[in-house]
Design brief:
32 strands; 4-stranded antiparallel beta sheet; alpha+beta; extended; 8 helices
Length: 657
């Protein structure tokens, strides 16, 4: 029981103090005034509360009991439990407040204890119930049955009485659905004709002859099938098994699986690596991934790299030599990122390969240019080492090395056309028609003098000119042409292209006519090794030269827009396909330079050393992944991955200062 606690109000007034207290006698419940004994003693005044209870002596001496409750502070509050009956979550009002700190279950019971007696009684009841059940199964009513008959009955397995739960569930009944459809009646046609007796006779004769011929064909086919079955069941030799097509496919598959297991970490980096430090800086970095090399290509120069337009894990690499005294044959290797240990296809040539390019529509056709001036077309599906067609002297073969080759879009007539540029001063169009190559010289690279005038070639000859004068004219004609080193077609204006020369000049030309240049750009002092049009901006192109510089041009202006000094001879340049402002260049000191013109128009956002004691010659961006391939003059091709700061895509290019 509870009682209302007495309350008193203490009030302090000026010059007074209140004192809390009380006594059991009646004087304690009255107002008491104490007169001060002296002038310095404070006067005390007691004021009773208005809601004070007046209790008698018996009520004051009464003892009030209190109920203490144990509350577990760690017990959960507002616990929600799912009700399967109502299919909702409900708040459980009663929470278990018991906190067990230590518990130990004993397995020993005293024999003379009450608990032991209860256990004996329970066990006896269970035994008697089991015996009655056995007797009922035998059909014997007599309880004095022999123990032998009781033993013949197998003991019934009792259910676990301490852990038994019954569960049940109901499944949905699938709804039946009937579907019907009406179709149109099949088309019918009435046919009638008159047949004479001799027509019927001729039909029967023809039918008998056809049946005889069919029987003869079936007999011949059965004989061939029997011979084939005999060959199938014949035990094959070890060489036939090892060099069969099935074995080749199996070995290639196993090789890919082994390489993927060996290069598991590289595959993880290729798929998921992102440089976290790029969040705190503007520069980027390159992560080395795979290295592609082969014994046959060791110490050869990488002269070209080209990705397949349809299979973006497949790329082709051409090997040869840029040195005139070290020409000892060439190799074309087709590698896959799935198997970096060995090329998928390999073609060897008598002359060094200097340029390659995949057809944009027919991904299996690979065009190649040679150091001896030959151009050839390979079909990688056949796996044959011989090209399907190549040029010769009668079909207009170049008289000097072919430095670059490019496929043209397939024409309306369906003929395949590609272009090549050579040191002999010709830009030639090759058309594959009726299993032969037909060539057309679309431009002669006429040399320009120092004052900008074109050196004209005198083609007029007289029949009575001496052999000495003819040789002199031929020599003058050869000197009047400038050697072409590279070219590239505009991505939007298909007839427009730019050619780089050994003199350091670049000429803007058109496929429509070859009488003269559209424009000439004087920007380099040494040979131009690469020119590349921008993928997204039709007026801009890059040029890289041996004079250590890379320049950005607008084809409508004669002066470069931007110039970059890389400190070494530039081997190759390439625009990134995912951005209009990102391009990369490789130099002879083994470094890769990556620029982003939207971020910095003067310095590279990445300048990284990739190889040591080797010159980088070519590079190529992957069409769909942030992967860059670089090749050197030792026959090594390396794949690197761009960090996030280097692969930021932008279709617009801001050239404002």
């Amino acid at each position: 029981m509870t009682a209302k606690r007495q309350r008193s109000t203490l009030r302090r007034t000026t010059g007074t103090a209140t004192k809390k207290g009380g006594k059991k006698d009646s004087a304690a419940h009255q107002d008491t005034h104490h007169a001060p004994t002296n002038e310095f003693e404070l006067q005390q005044t007691f004021i009773e509360a208005e809601d004070k209870l007046n209790l008698n002596e018996e009520e004051l001496e009464m003892v009030h009991s209190r109920l203490l409750e144990a509350v577990n502070p760690n017990a959960s509050k507002n616990r929600a439990v799912y009700s399967f009956e109502e299919k909702v979550f409900k708040i459980e009002p009663i929470q278990d407040q018991v906190a067990i700190h230590f518990a130990f279950d004993s397995v020993i019971v005293r024999k003379d204890s009450e608990e032991a007696k209860e256990m004996y009684d329970e066990e006896e009841k269970r035994r008697l119930a089991l015996e009655e059940k056995k007797l009922a199964q035998l059909g014997m009513a007599d309880k004095e049955a022999s123990s032998k008959e009781l033993d013949d009955v197998n003991e019934d397995q009792l259910r676990n009485q301490f852990n038994c739960s019954h569960r049940a569930t109901q499944t949905y009944i699938n709804d039946f659905k009937q579907d019907s459809m009406n179709t149109d009646d099949p088309p019918t046609r009435e046919f009638s004709d008159n047949a004479t007796q001799w027509q019927i006779y001729d039909c029967y004769v023809k039918m008998m002859a056809d049946q005889k011929d069919k029987k003869d064909d079936d007999d011949a086919a059965d004989d061939v099938a029997d011979d084939k079955n005999i060959d199938d069941f014949r035990e094959k030799t070890a060489d036939e098994i090892m060099y069969s097509e099935e074995m080749t496919k199996t070995v290639k598959l196993v090789e890919r699986m082994i390489n993927q297991n060996i290069n598991e970490e590289l595959l993880e980096d290729f798929k998921f690596w992102e440089d976290e430090s790029d969040k705190y800086k503007e520069e980027g970095s390159l992560l080395p991934l795979w290295r592609f090399s082969n014994d046959k290509t060791n110490k050869k120069h990488v002269t070209g790299i080209c990705w397949n337009p349809h299979y973006h894990d497949l790329f082709a690499v051409s090997f040869g030599s840029y040195e005139f005294t070290k020409q000892n044959g060439g190799v074309i290797c087709c590698y896959s990122l799935k198997n970096p240990s060995y090329p998928e296809y390999m073609f060897t040539t008598k002359s060094g390969v200097t340029a390659i390019d995949f057809h944009p529509q027919h991904a299996s056709l690979l065009a190649a240019g040679m150091y001896d001036g030959t151009v050839a077309i390979y079909d990688i599906r056949t796996g044959s080492n011989e090209p399907i067609i190549k040029s010769n002297v009668r079909t207009g073969k170049h008289t000097d090395a072919v430095w670059q080759i490019r496929w043209d879009q397939e024409t309306i007539s369906g003929s395949l056309t590609f272009f090549s540029v050579s040191s002999d001063g010709r830009v030639t169009s090759w058309t594959l028609a009726k299993n032969e190559l037909q060539h057309t010289d679309i431009m002669y690279l006429k040399r320009e003098s120092l004052n900008g005038e074109v050196v004209q070639q005198n083609d007029e000859t007289s029949s009575n000119v001496s052999k000495k004068s003819e040789a002199k004219e031929q020599q003058q004609a050869l000197h009047s042409l400038s050697g072409g080193t590279c070219f590239d077609f505009n991505k939007n204006v298909k007839h427009l292209f730019v050619v780089g020369t050994e003199d350091g000049l670049m000429h803007q030309c058109s496929k429509a006519y070859n009488s003269q240049y559209l424009n000439t750009y004087h920007g380099h002092h040494l040979a131009v090794y690469a020119v590349k049009w921008n993928y997204h901006h039709e007026q801009l192109f890059l040029s890289g030269s041996a004079d250590w510089s890379v320049k950005l041009w607008d084809y409508k202006k004669n002066e470069p827009l931007l110039q970059f000094d890389l400190g070494a001879s530039v081997g190759d340049i390439a625009w990134a396909p995912f951005s209009a402002s990102v391009f990369a260049a490789v130099t002879d000191d083994g470094r890769v330079h990556v620029y982003d013109l939207n971020k910095n128009k003067h310095d590279a956002v990445c300048d990284q050393l990739v190889v040591r004691k080797a010159k980088l010659t070519h590079l190529a961006f992957n069409p769909s992944s942030p992967i860059l391939l670089v090749g050197d003059d030792k026959g090594l091709v390396q794949a690197v991955k761009l960090s996030p700061n280097l692969k930021i895509g932008s279709q617009k290019l801001d050239l404002s200062p």
